[in-house]
Specification:
alpha/beta, Rossmann fold, six-stranded parallel β-sheet, 7 helices, globular
Length: 189
C-alpha cells in the first residue's frame, strides 16, 4: 500500500512567529510558544512543510523582498531545525490594491505545489491565524486549521465558525490534531 504524503502549508506571522505589523528587522523575530516543538514533530514524521506568507510591506514600498528573506533566515535560526525545514516558501509581496497572484486567500501557491509534488488534497492542511489563511486552504480544496493569536477577534471567530474550521491554542495543538486525523484516514476499515 502506498501511503500518501502529508503536506502542511503554514502561515508565518501569528502562526510560527509573533505577529508584528510590517516585520522586516531580523532582530525583532520572536517565535510563538511551541513553534519549535510543533515543526520538529511534523518534520520527524517526514511531512512536507511549506511556508505561505503575505508581505504587503514589499508591495507598499515599506521594505524590500530581501528584508523578508533575512527575517526567514532569523526565524529558521531560532527554530533550530535546519535551513531546509520548508520544502518551499512563497512570499506574496502584493499590496491589497495590486493584482493578486499569490496573496492569500489566493490558492495559487497551494495548487501549484500540489501538482508539482503530486499531493492529494485530503492529505494537505493549511494552518493559520486569520480568515485569509483558512479561506486559502478551502479555496485549494484542502483541510484548514486555525490557531489562536493576538489577531484573534470576535469577527475572525465568526468567520472561522462559519467555515467550520477547528481552532487550536497553538501550532503544536494543530499539528497533533493533523496527526490524529491522518492516522484516522489511514486506518483500515
Amino acid at each position: 500500500m502506498i501511503v500518501p504524503s502529508v503536506a502542511v502549508f503554514l502561515d508565518r506571522d501569528g502562526t510560527i512567529i509573533v505577529h508584528k505589523p510590517y516585520l522586516h528587522q531580523p532582530d525583532e523575530v520572536e517565535l510563538v510558544p511551541a513553534a519549535t516543538a510543533a515543526l520538529k514533530r511534523a518534520r520527524d514524521q517526514n511531512w512536507k512543510l511549506f511556508l505561505l506568507t503575505n508581505q504587503s510591506g514589499v508591495g507598499r514600498g515599506l521594505f524590500r523582498l530581501e528584508n523578508v528573506e533575512f527575517v526567514h533566515v532569523r526565524m529558521l535560526e531560532l527554530l533550530g531545525l535546519n535551513a531546509d525545514l520548508f520544502t518551499g516558501i512563497c512570499i506574496a509581496p502584493e499590496a491589497p490594491d495590486q493584482p493578486i497572484l499569490y496573496r492569500k486567500p489566493s490558492p495559487r501557491f497551494i495548487l501549484e505545489v500540489m501538482q508539482e509534488h503530486t499531493l492529494a488534497g485530503d492529505c494537505c492542511w493549511m494552518i493559520g491565524d486569520s480568515p485569509s489563511d483558512w479561506e486559502t486552504g478551502r479555496a485549494a480544496g484542502i483541510h484548514a486549521c486555525a490557531v489562536r493569536s493576538a489577531l484573534t477577534t470576535a469577527e475572525s471567530e465568526r468567520a472561522r465558525e462559519k467555515l467550520g474550521i477547528p481552532l487550536f491554542d497553538d501550532l503544536l495543538e494543530a499539528i497533533i490534531h493533523i496527526e490524529k486525523e491522518t492516522i484516522h484516514q489511514r486506518a483500515p476499515e
